[in-house]
Design goal:
There is one protein chain. By secondary structure, this protein is of the alpha+beta class. It is 26% helix and 30% strand. The protein contains 6 helices and 13 strands. The strands form 3 sheets. A 5-stranded mixed β-sheet has the order 1-2-3-8-7, sandwiched between helices. Helix 4 packs across helix 5. It is globular.
């Protein structure tokens, strides 16, 4: 399907805020790949690719993301005119939106784990992936924000425990479309705040919901593991870990609660 055919089918969905244009697919390999192709062909900001089933989904560092029918897989085209480092902060915006969606649809109290995991009872319920392309000006030309939320099922073969909305108290007839509507509203709220007010309110909200502040964590980097006390999130989105009085700034890696060994 070419871009014009897809955009002819893209409508302002009644259940989504007017900011969004919905492109709904029965199945695709990756909603991020579909959205990136649309972005390269000029799709407007707010174009939301929503697939009922995703066969080649992926998460951070190329990890596979399981997306059977019944779970939410969506990717959003954004054009925020920000430097790449600032645009990367949109992962925190998405995490806040997912957490508020979980809180709205279940009795659970979600927590946040750096950089963009949403946990319920210590188990991961969503995945977030950002991909972007720079413009000649050095700003981001477009950014695609992929979000997967486990609605009805969750995998049991992941490095972290996982869960889904139904498992944590959502009504039995919950649908991915309903979850998408909630997520879209919460995302637009935080996105507009980021554009108007910068990262400060997003950082404050993220810290308010963060799991493990003041507690031991282990950080796994590409060539090193270290342990310390989780202290803060800085204004660039880096995690600050206290290693016996020396603050280490973490910009990439995996965080686990507790100390190794």
């Amino acid at each position: 399907m070419n871009q014009s055919e897809e955009m002819n089918g893209a409508t302002r969905a009644a259940q989504l805020p007017a900011f969004f244009y919905l492109v709904e697919l029965e199945s695709c390999g990756s909603t991020n790949d579909e959205a990136k192709e649309l972005a390269r062909q000029g799709a407007p900001e707010g174009t939301m690719v929503f697939a009922h089933r995703q066969t080649g989904g992926r998460g951070r560092r190329g990890r596979a993301w399981n997306s059977p029918e019944g779970n939410l897989a969506c990717s959003l085209v954004l054009r925020p005119a920000l430097p790449p480092a600032d645009a990367a902060l949109l992962s925190f915006v998405a995490a806040l939106a997912v957490a508020e969606t979980v809180a709205a649809l279940t009795p659970a109290r979600p927590t946040l784990k750096w950089p963009n995991d949403v946990l319920v009872g210590g188990a991961k319920i969503s995945g977030i992936l950002l991909e972007s392309e720079p413009s000649p000006t050095g700003l981001v030309d477009w950014l695609v924000l992929g979000t997967g939320i486990n609605v009805s099922t969750f995998p049991d073969d992941t490095p972290y425990p996982a869960t889904c909305l139904r498992a944590v108290g959502a009504v039995a007839d919950i649908t991915p479309r309903l979850v998408l509507a909630h997520y879209s509203r919460h995302f637009e709220h935080w996105y507009q705040r980021l554009l108007r007010q910068g990262f400060a309110p997003i950082r404050a909200a993220w810290l308010n919901a963060a799991q493990g502040l003041g507690a031991p964590v282990t950080v796994r980097l590409a060539h090193e593991n270290f342990s310390g006390i989780l202290r803060d999130l800085d204004m660039d989105g880096a995690l600050l870990v206290d290693c016996d009085g020396f603050i280490r700034r973490v910009t990439a890696g995996d965080v686990f609660f507790g100390r190794e060994g």
